[in-house]
Every structure is written in structure tokens, then in C-alpha cells.
Design a protein that fits this description.
This protein is mostly helical and 65 residues long. The chain contains two helices and no strands. α1 runs antiparallel to α2. The longest helix is centred in the N-terminal third of the chain and has 27 residues. The mean pLDDT is 93. Keywords: Membrane, Transmembrane, Transmembrane helix.
């Protein structure tokens, strides 16, 4: 009964993190800016960190099941 919110949150974090990392990699591969108004290295680093953090939170949520 209490596993439902953990599964939902873990799924949302996993989808967001994976999507953000794939999007960042695609932008870098085409040599397009990840974020307007920032240097490409800084924006790629921040986006990669956010994606990895979301995947870490997904794993943490799934371990609470």
C-alpha cells in the first residue's frame, strides 16, 4: 500500500534524469548550446549533474520499496 508513492516518484525521477542526459548528449553531439546565455561547458556540466542527481534519487526511491 505504501509502495505506490515510492514507485511513482522513482519512475518520474528516472524518466526525467534519463531524458535530461539524453537531451544534453544530443545537444553536445550537434555542437548546439545546452542553455542560452551560458558557456557550453558550464551548461553541460550543470545539466549532466542534474540528470545524474535525478537518476540517483530514482535509485534511492526504488530501494525504499
Amino acid at each position: 500500500m505504501e509502495n505506490g508513492p515510492a514507485v511513482f516518484a522513482g519512475s518520474v525521477f528516472a524518466l526525467f534524469g534519463a531524458g535530461l542526459l539524453v537531451w544534453t548528449a544530443a545537444r553536445l553531439r550537434h555542437r548546439e548550446p545546452v542553455a542560452d546565455g551560458m558557456s557550453s561547458a558550464a551548461s553541460a556540466m550543470v545539466a549532466s549533474f542534474a540528470g545524474a542527481a535525478a537518476l540517483f534519487l530514482a535509485v534511492w526511491c526504488f530501494t525504499r520499496i
